[in-house]
């Protein structure tokens, strides 16, 4: 009887530790596909409502134009110089923005996916290429 309790206890500990290790590895590698994690920084700020999903940020609904206006208007207040902007209202709607600051270039693009009813947004931060 005691042997059975010890084995059961050891098995429970093994399962709990395996789940904990698995969650740790997932969290550690969560952002491995992106070059910038806005929610871990103040600059650039993260648009309220955007949440990281696998390899991009998204939120329910068609909010691409609000996100476009937010970054177009807000990032210059943080010292980012707008280098390129493009927005297309036709079809699904989407945008591309490019900023420079301190020898870094920030690309932000996004759009609405009508099939999932999600607004998807990507961020990419890299050194300026001369």
Describe the structure.
- The chain has 130 residues and is an alpha+beta fold.
- The protein has two domains: 1-30; 37-127, no CATH class.
- It has two helices and six strands.
- Strands 1-2-6-5-4-3 form a six-stranded antiparallel beta sheet, covered by helices on one side.
- A hairpin with a 2-residue loop joins strand 4 and strand 5.
- The longest helix is centred in the first third of the chain and has 27 residues, at 2-28.
- The termini are far apart.
Key features?
alpha+beta, 2 domains, 6-stranded antiparallel beta sheet, 2 helices, 6 strands, elongated
In DSSP terms (H or I, runs of 4 or more residues), the helix count works out at: 2
Main sheet properties: 6 strands, antiparallel
Low-confidence stretches: none
Q: What structural class do the secondary elements suggest?
A: alpha+beta
Mean pLDDT across all amino acids: 86
Overall tally of structural domains: 2
H/E topology pattern: HEEHEEEE
Please report the distance between the alpha carbons of the first and last residues: 73 Å
Order of neighbouring strands in the sheet with most strands: 1-2-6-5-4-3
